Structure formats: C-alpha cells, structure tokens
Amino acid sequence: MMTPESWHCIDCGYDTAPGCYDRAKMEKALAASGSVISTADGVDQTVDDRSEIYMVRDKVWRQAGMGPNSGCLCIGCLERRIKRPLKLEDFPRRHPLNTMPGTPRLMKLRGQR
Questions:
Q1: Is the pLDDT of residue 33 over 70?
Q2: Would you say 98 and 54 are in contact if contact means Cβ atoms under 8 Å apart?
Q3: Whole-model pTM?
Q4: How far apart are CA 25 and CA 35, in angstroms?
Q5: Domain count, the chain
Q6: Measured between alpha carbons, how far is 87 from 43 in angstroms, rounded to an integer?
Q7: Host domain of residue 61
C-alpha cells in the first residue's frame, strides 16, 4: 500500500490530498471492508482541483532533500527546496499520478488544464 502517513506538506502543512485517507485511516477502512488489496472495495477517495498528488523524477525529489516514503511536499515547497520553478520535464509523463486532477498550479506545470 502506497498511502503516506500523512498527505500534509511536511514544510507548510498544506493538505495535498484533502479527499484521501492517510495511512492509518486507510488501513482501518480496508480492514472494515474486508480487503487488504484494493481500495475500490468500499473506500471512497476524492482527487479534485484541491489536490496536489503528483510524481516528479527521482532526481528532482532528491534535489529537494527527499527520499522514498519521506512525506509529501506541496508544489510551492518543492520549488522552494529545489530553488527553481518546476518544469514539465520534471514530471514523468506516463506515471498514473500525473494523469489525475489537481490544483490549477499543478495542472499548469504538467501542461494540463
């Protein structure tokens, strides 16, 4: 399961996924639904224009001082950490997370509207 401990940005506290469960809530919901494999079994999650769920290239994540499973960063805090604006090339195009809805600033960075 890839659900983070918290969806809040570790720098500013912004909730990057206000419609999604954190790890503890997800585990509890999955246990109640009788599934440990799929979140489709009665566990509703919402990703919309308030969400900043994305994937950047490993190099960019490391430049921000982040490692695997080290928490979430909102777009603004990620840009502050890498000391430059994000570019379209920073987002792997074929990653499923980069096809979901998001905040206007995230959609603009990914070349989506």
A1: no
A2: yes
A3: 0.83
A4: 14
A5: 1
A6: 33
A7: 46-109
